[in-house]
Amino acid sequence: MTEKIGVLGKKTPQRTGVERIVNAPLPTVYGQFRAVGYLDHDRGDEQVALVHGEIGTDDVLTRLHSECLTGDAFGSQHCECGDQLAAALKAVVAEGSGIVVYLRGHEGRGIGLLAKLRAMALQAEGLDTVEANLALGLPVDARDYGVAAGMLHDLGVKSVRLLSNNPRKREALVRHGIEVAETVPLLIPPCESNITYLRTKRERLDHVLPHLDAVAHLSS
């Protein structure tokens, strides 16, 4: 916790880290969840963990899902994000327990919505997702998973079975003190609109996407 100077010159405490704010029941089309809401005092973002069942502390099936308005809400086929979110929610319900951490502030791998749309426009002109970000003078991936680890620590989780194709998420959780007992693939069948994007994720961002080999006929 740091301190800031108040209006009368007195030092007042300023919260840092992640703080649990609310725990509310959330019935969904996938099943019954608890929406555990957090405030990230460092970035100011409001975050939520969707918890299903009695999760325990070890080997909890967990998805860290980066916010994607176009995919999650609008059903964009430019990416596989919306389908991954639905698949993760279904998976934890099928498991009987688990967590989907929905990470706000991660839009466009952390560059924000408008910048992501600008990058998408460049991709429509022929750049890949990495080249588009760099052409805009933006980082390829600006996401930080420290807040996700803080939420998992608060929920009492020590180790996870991580629903992800991205090895950087595993590395980040381990760095922040969450053991990853297993990485569980979350593979979504590609389509013509996202195959180039997915191939770029595999070839340039190290995502583990072996299922793309079976659809060599698809092109953008």
Distance between the first and last residues' Cα:
49 Å
What portion of residues belong to β-strands? 25-35%
What order do the SSEs take from the amino end to the carboxyl end, as H and E? Answer: EEEEEEHHEHHHHEHEH
Q: How large, in whole angstroms, is the Cα Rg?
A: 19 Å
With helices defined by DSSP (H or I, 4 residues minimum), what is the helix count? Answer: 8
Q: What about the largest sheet?
A: 7 strands, mixed
Envelope shape = globular
**For the residues shown, what is the average pLDDT?**
92
**Could you estimate the helical fraction of the residues in percent?**
25-40%
Instruction: Report the structural category.
Output: alpha/beta
How many β-strand stretches?
A: 9
Stretches with pLDDT under 50, minimum 5 residues: 1-7
Strand order of the largest sheet: 3-4-5-7-6-8-9
Write a concise keyword list for the protein shown above.
220 residues, alpha/beta, 7-stranded mixed beta sheet, two-stranded antiparallel sheet, 26% strand, globular
Characterize the structure shown.
This protein is of the alpha/beta class and 220 residues long. Strand 1 and strand 2 form a beta hairpin. Helix 4 packs across helix 5. The longest helix has 15 residues.
Summarize the model shown:
By secondary structure, the protein is α/β, with parallel strands linked by helices.
Helices, strands, pairings?
Layout: E1 2-5, E2 11-14, E3 18-27, E4 32-40, E5 46-52, E6 60-66, H1 69-73, H2 81-95, E7 98-103, H3 107-110, H4 113-124, H5 129-135, H6 146-154, E8 159-163, H7 167-175, E9 179-184, H8 195-204
Helix pairs in contact: 4-5
